[in-house]
Amino acid sequence: MRTISARAHAKVNLHLGVGDLREDGYHDLTTVFQSLSLSDTVTLEIGPDRDLVVEGSIVSGLSATGLDAASVPTDDSNLAWRAVDKLVEYYRTHHGLAESRSVHIQIHKGIPTAGGMAGGSADAAAALVAAHAFLSETHPAVPMSVLVDIAAELGSDVPFTLRGGTMLGRGRGELLTPLLSRGTYHWVLVFFREGLSTPRVFAELDTLREQGTSLGWSMETDDLAKALLSGEARQVAAHLHNDLEAPVRQLRRDVDRMREAGLEAGALRAVVSGSGPTVAFLCESELHARDVLDDLLADGAYSGTVAHGPAKGAHLLT
Ligand code: C5P
C-alpha cells in the first residue's frame, strides 16, 4: 500500500486580544501565533486501483493513534476528513478531477485534543498538504493562496497551522502577516486531563464582559513584536498576554494552581494557550524548561512536555 504523510505543528498564542462578538458569531482578534515543535502526523493510505471514486467523499475511513486518540472523531466531522473533501471539490470544479482512488486517513496525535493548541487545525493543515501532494500527482498544483483560503473555511487557526513560524493574526485569526522573530524559545506545556470547548470559553468571556467585570480588549502588539526581534526570552515573557485567560480561569480553577506552581518552579512567565486549558511556561533555555517540567510533573497529577518554537508550517514527510 502506498502512503503520503504530512506533519503540522501546535501553536501557542504569545498575545491574544479578543474584541467584540461579531454578527457571524466570531470575535475580532489581534493575536500573535508561534508554532511549536509539538506536532501531529497525518498519513493518507491510498486505496487500490479498483476503488475509484467519482463523486462524494474519497475518504473511506479515519483512525487515530497517540495522545488523546480516543477523543478524536473518526467520521466526516473530523477537520482532516473535511480538509480532504474540500480540496477534492476544488479539483473537481477547477481542474476537472473525474475520478480518484479512495484514501484512508491515519492521524498520529502528539498535540492534546481541546487543549488550546490547535491540534484539530494542525490535522486539517497536514491533511491539506498530503491531499494536495496526492491530487497534484495527476493534476496541476494549486498555489499556497488557494490552500490558505480553503484552510480559512475549515477553521480560524487552520491558515496559521498551514503556514507556521511567527505571525500576526487578525480578523477571526485567519488574516495573517509574518512577524520577524529571532532565536528559539523554550516552553513547558502542561496538559489537563479534560479539555475545554473553544466556543464555551469565548461565550464565558462575553458573559464576564456583560456582567461588567473590567475585562479590556488588548489589541496592542508592538512591544511584543519588538521583544521578538531581540531574541531574548525574558523580554518576550514580559509581553505574553491572553484575554481568554480570565474565562478559562473561571471555568477551570486548577489553572491558577498550575500557574503558581510553574512560577515557583522558576519559569519566566505563564500564559494560557489559546482557549486553554493548556498552560504554557516560557523558560530561559531547554535545560531550564526540563527542570521546570520535572518539578511540575513530580506528583504525577498532570502530564506535559517541553517544546520549542518557532517551528515550520505543515510539510510533507519524505
Ligand atoms: O473557527 P473555529 O471553528 O475554530 O472556531 C470555533 C468557535 O470558536 C467558533 O464557532 C466561535 O464560537 C469561537 N471563535 C470566536 N472568535 C474567533 C474564533 C473562534 O468566537 N475569532
Short summary of the structure?
The protein is built from ten helices and 14 strands. With 318 residues, the protein is α+β, with helices and mostly antiparallel strands.
The residue-averaged pLDDT reads 95
The domain count comes to 2
Uncertain stretches of 5 or more adjacent residues: none
Annotated CATH topology of the largest domain = Ribosomal Protein S5, domain 2
Could you say which small molecules are bound to this protein?
Answer: cytidine-5'-monophosphate
Q: What is the approximate shape? A: globular
CATH second-level architecture of the largest domain: 2-Layer Sandwich
Radius of gyration: 20 Å
Number of helices: 10
Number of strands: 14
Strand content: 25-35%
Pfam families: GHMP_kinases_C (PF08544), GHMP_kinases_N (PF00288)
Domain GHMP kinase N-terminal: 78-165
Binding site for ATP: 112-122
Pathway: Isoprenoid biosynthesis; isopentenyl diphosphate biosynthesis via DXP pathway; isopentenyl diphosphate from 1-deoxy-D-xylulose 5-phosphate: step 3/6
Question: How would you describe this protein?
Answer:
The structure is a single chain. With 318 residues, the protein is α+β, with helices and mostly antiparallel strands. It folds into two domains: 3-178, Ribosomal Protein S5, domain 2; 185-309, Alpha-Beta Plaits (2-Layer Sandwich), CATH 3.30.70.890. It is 34% helix and 30% strand. It has helices spanning 79-95, 119-135, 144-154, 158-163, 198-210, 222-230, 233-237, 245-251, 254-264, 286-297, and strands at 2-21, 27-46, 52-53, 59-66, 100-101, 103-109, 166-170, 175-178, 185-191, 241-242, 269-272, 279-283, 303-309, 315-317. The strands form three sheets. Strands 1, 2, 4, 6, 7, 8, 10 and 14 form an eight-stranded mixed β-sheet that branches. It has a four-stranded antiparallel β-sheet with strand order 11-12-9-13. The protein has a two-stranded antiparallel sheet with strand order 3-5. A hairpin with a 6-residue loop joins strand 11 and strand 12 (279-283). Helix 1 (79-95) packs parallel to helix 2, helix 1 (79-95) packs across helix 3 and helix 5 (198-210) crosses helix 8. Cytidine-5'-monophosphate (C5P) binds at residues 25-27, 29, 155-157, 172-173, 198-199, 202. It catalyses: 4-CDP-2-C-methyl-D-erythritol + ATP = 4-CDP-2-C-methyl-D-erythritol 2-phosphate + ADP + H(+).
